[in-house]
Every structure is written in structure tokens, then in C-alpha cells.
Amino acid sequence: MSDAPRGRDASHHILNVGYTSSRGPGVAATVSLVRDGEFVIVFDPGMVSGPEAITKPLADLGLRPSEVTDVVLSHHHPDNIVNAALFPQARVHDHKAVYRGHDWTDREAEGYEFTPSLKLIFTPGHSREDITLLVGTPDGVVALAGDLWWRADGPADDPVSPDRAQLRASRERVLAVADVIVPGHGAPFPVSDTVPL
User: Considering the entire predicted model, what is its pTM?
Assistant: First the structure.
């Protein structure tokens, strides 16, 4: 059975293109907005130059932070999560649960579908808790992969990976279904034979 989302109705927008200290003045997360039906999802609202790096592009798309229904965290490293509080009304999803207010609902991420076009898969490797949001769009499948890749050129050997074999297996799993990858700290890139494993 394929990991690919069954539907192709969602839309995806980059709110902030991230970078690492070797590519920018510090570290910033690539932050995405995904919409499908009633769901307005922000993925990895992490470190950016300031909150307006997320809220202004959101406003340019006609949305207020209070209209975001869900936040998905690819993993719990601070550079990927520190701005989650910009969305106090949203449900927050990670690898094992959904959180809202004081409610904590256990739910494994693997195979969870928001809609037929939006699916979570468990992709450990950069950390032991990584998840990827697969977004079925009219133009193909976009994989919001967090730090499985920091940017288009890898790094192939992730210096913080607890398990290099697991990282490679998760990357292969994503590459098998994605047309475009959105990395944790860089611009989206198309799947090709040159993507680092």
C-alpha cells in the first residue's frame, strides 16, 4: 500500500524560507501553510527573524493567526517549534498526540489523515520523533519533511542524527511518494536522482 495521500485537493504555500548559519545570519525554519477544506494548517512554526516573518505572509494570504486550525510539528527541536504559540486556538500535532488548551489526546501520527489529501507518516532519522506531512495537491505530492533534509543539498550525513540507517530509510520512504520536498531550513526542491540519501 502506498504512503501517498489518496486525494489531490490541498494547497501549499511557503510562509518563510529557512536557512542555517552557513547560509544565513543565524538559523530559521521553513514554515509552510497548508489548506484543505476546513483545515488551515501551519507546519513547523519555528525560529524566524521575528513573528512577522510568519504572520505577514499569512495576512497576505487573507488569514489571521486565530484562523489557523492546526499546527504540525515535525519534531521537538526548538528551531522548529518556538513560534507555535502564535496560534493559540489551534490543535497541535506531533508524533504521538494532539494538544489543545489543557487537552492531550494520544494519537500515533503514522497514517493519520486530516483529509484524503493530507496524511502524516512517521519518518524518524533526524530525531527519533520525526513526522512528515504529505500534501496531495493538483500538481503532485508535496512532502513537508522537517529536518530529514535541512535544504536541497542535505546534509547527506546529518550531524545530529541518532541513527544514520533510519534516516536513510525515512528519506527513501518520502522519496517514493513525493514530487517536491520542503526541507526544514531551505527552499522546496523537486525530487530527483541527486537528492541526498
Answer: 0.97
Is 146:130 a contact under the CB 8 Å cutoff?
Answer: yes
98: Cβ contacts below 8 Å, ≥ 6 apart: 91, 92, 104, 105, 107
123-158 in b/e form (b: 16+ CB < 10 A) is: bbbbbebbbbbbbbbeeebbbbbbbbbbbbebeeeb
Q: Which CATH architecture has domain 11-190?
A: 4-Layer Sandwich (3.60)
pLDDT one digit per residue (tens) for the chain, 197 residues: 689 999 999 999 999 999 987 666 789 999 999 999 999 999 999 999 999 999 999 999 999 999 999 999 999 999 999 999 999 999 999 999 999 999 999 999 999 999 999 999 999 999 999 999 999 999 999 999 999 999 998 898 899 999 999 999 999 999 999 999 999 999 999 999 999 88
Task: Please provide residue 98's backbone torsions phi and psi, each rounded to the nearest 5 degrees.
Answer: -125, 135
Alpha carbon of 134 to those of 24, 59, 91, 93, 159: distances in Å?
A: 27, 24, 18, 14, 25
For residues 83 and 55, give the distance between their C-alpha atoms in angstroms, rounded to a whole number. Answer: 10
Order of all β-strands in the sheet with 118-122: 113-115, 118-122, 131-137, 140-144, 180-182, 189-190
Could you tell me the three cell numbers for 90? 489551534
